[in-house]
Design brief:
about 260 residues; alpha+beta; five-stranded antiparallel β-sheet; 7 helices; 10 strands; about 35% helix
Length: about 260
């Protein structure tokens, strides 16, 4: 049975003075079942982070318009999008006298598969039904500690250095970019892209349960509401995109 997408993007400024996250969902201008979702978490002081995050969105959108799913590699398109955004963010320092940086996670949906890339600690999750299936590994100091077995994932959520990144777009060093891909997609699969202002308040299992139980829009509203309550007046910017694969409704037979 063919699949359709139930999708939603959502944001909240949290308790910050400025919304420096950016999130977007773009269908390919030529259709073909191709779409792109992006979350970028900007950093760099007043307006600097906004410029960096917006550059990620703008570059990804431009590259999607030129992308052909039939003849081009999605990994090359994703990598070039993040590398180009990195170079443009660096160049903007000389124009704006800021120190802009951004994390990013990008997912491209194609017929029969999805591909993604990320840099920093903005995450992509894949769920199958109400169970966690996969998530990206943050490019952060505490995730390195978790990987080495020095702290638990639960300890990482409250570690005093949990916000220290080991790579980002716009820095002096070449950014680290990791890739992933999933095929054999089925109804009940879902994907969440989000900034740390959301995932910092949830276990993987809770995220999976909420997204499985509700529509993409309802799940977005519920997750933001819970994150805001748990932040207790000290919440970061929140940005997320949810894409749920569901069975297309059966066509009614013609009379």
């Amino acid at each position: 049975m063919p699949l359709i997408i139930d999708a939603c993007v959502a944001q909240h400024q949290g308790d910050r003075k400025e919304q420096q996250d950016r999130v977007a969902l773009f269908p390919h201008p030529r259709g073909g079942g191709v779409a792109l979702a992006v979350v970028a978490d900007g950093m760099g002081g007043h307006t600097g982070g906004v410029l960096a995050a917006q550059q990620v969105i703008h570059t990804a959108c431009n590259n999607l318009e030129q992308f052909s799913a039939r003849s081009e590699s999605p990994q090359i398109m994703l990598e070039s999008s993040l590398q180009e955004a990195h170079m443009l963010i660096k160049a903007s320092r000389f124009i704006n006298e800021k120190d802009p940086h951004s994390t990013a996670v990008i997912l491209i949906l194609q017929p029969g598969k999805v591909s993604w890339a990320h840099c920093g600690d903005s995450r992509l999750y894949q769920f199958r039904g109400d169970q966690p299936f996969f998530r990206t590994t943050d490019h952060s100091y505490v995730e390195q500690l978790v990987a080495k077995g020095k702290i638990t994932p639960e300890q990482a959520l409250v570690h005093p250095n949990r916000n220290i990144l080991i790579t980002s777009l716009g820095g002096n060093e070449v950014p680290r970019i990791d890739f992933g891909e999933a095929e054999d997609l089925q109804a009940g699969d879902s994907f969440l892209l989000c900034s740390d202002g959301l995932w910092g308040y949830f276990s993987d299992a809770e995220l999976a349960g909420v997204i499985a139980a509700y529509s993409a829009r309802e799940a977005s509203e519920m997750l933001i509401s819970r994150a805001r309550t748990r932040a207790q007046g000290e919440g970061d910017n929140v940005s997320l995109a949810i894409l749920k694969l569901v069975d297309a409704p059966a066509k009614k037979p013609a009379n």
